[in-house]
Each structure stands twice: as structure tokens, then as C-alpha cells.
Design brief:
Order of helices and strands: HEEEEEEEE
Number of strands: 8
CATH topology of the largest domain: OB fold (Dihydrolipoamide Acetyltransferase, E2P)
Oligomer: single chain
Helix content: under 10%
Distance between the termini: 24 Å
Number of helices: 1
Length: about 140
């Protein structure tokens, strides 16, 4: 956190507050149903598989592989124009869920499907930490 952060920040609610608390601790977590074991992404109130309300957060490996990605070359929003080009990657995590986050610390020419990645954390303000992916190794 060396410079002010002007991009939009999350607005936590009862479903995802536990996720954002874990991000602040730099701990990769995901919501999981205590009844049927289904991993959930994005956080929900109720399990879509068994309809249980018994959901909690569990630690995940933070490891996955790029399923797909987009290289953003232009963003009309003034708060994002300084960030282009950037990569948004959909990653299949080891637990089977797919998460979509920024892919950082990687040359655009090196991004590819099935590339191994790991979750990292960026402290953007004293209150907020955002998850990202970066190449493994």
C-alpha cells in the first residue's frame, strides 16, 4: 500500500463477510455446505445442491489452473484506465470451484489455458485486501 487506492471496493454482506475477513488474514477460503460438502463460489445464503442453510468458510489450497482468461486492453472507466492492460482469469481451483480474479505478475504473452496459478493477496487499504492470482513457480 504505497499509493492511494481509488478503484471500487467490495460491499460486504452477511453472506460474504467471512470471505473478506479471511482475505485480510491472507487466508484462501471458500464457502462450503456442512450438509452435502458442496463448495460454493460466490458466497450464498443457501446451498444450491441440498438447500441447506448450514454454510461456513473453509480453507482452500489457493492453487488452481487457468480455465479461461481475458486480456483487457481498454477500459472506459477513468479509475481503471491506468491499469490497462490487465488480465482477468477464470481459474479452476483444486477444490473444483471456479473463481474469476485478476492475474498479476505475468507477462501478457505468457498467459495460457491450464497455466498453474496460486491465490495471492493485495492490501489496497488498511481495511481491504483483495485476492488475485499469479503464476506458480
Amino acid at each position: 500500500m504505497t499509493e492511494p487506492y481509488y478503484k471500487p471496493l467490495p460491499r460486504p454482506n452477511s453472506e460474504d463477510a467471512g470471505f473478506w475477513e479471511a482475505m485480510k488474514r491472507h487466508e484462501p477460503v471458500c464457502q462450503r455446505c456442512s450438509q452435502c460438502g458442496t463448495w460454493l463460489w460466490h458466497p450464498l445464503v443457501q446451498c444450491p445442491q441440498c438447500l441447506s442453510f448450514d454454510l461456513g468458510y473453509e480453507k482452500i489450497s489457493g492453487l488452481g489452473k487457468v480455465f479461461s482468461y481475458s486480456i483487457v486492453l481498454y477500459n472506459p472507466s477513468p479509475v481503471w484506465s491506468d491499469a490497462v492492460p490487465y488480465v482477468v482469469a477464470t481459474v479452476t481451483m483444486e477444490e473444483g470451484i471456479r473463481m474469476k480474479l485478476h492475474l498479476v505478475n505475468c507477462d501478457l504473452k505468457d498467459v495460457k489455458v491450464d497455466m498453474p496459478v496460486k491465490m495471492t493477496f493485495k492490501d489496497v487499504t488498511p481495511e481491504w485486501t483483495l485476492p488475485q492470482f499469479e503464476p506458480c513457480g
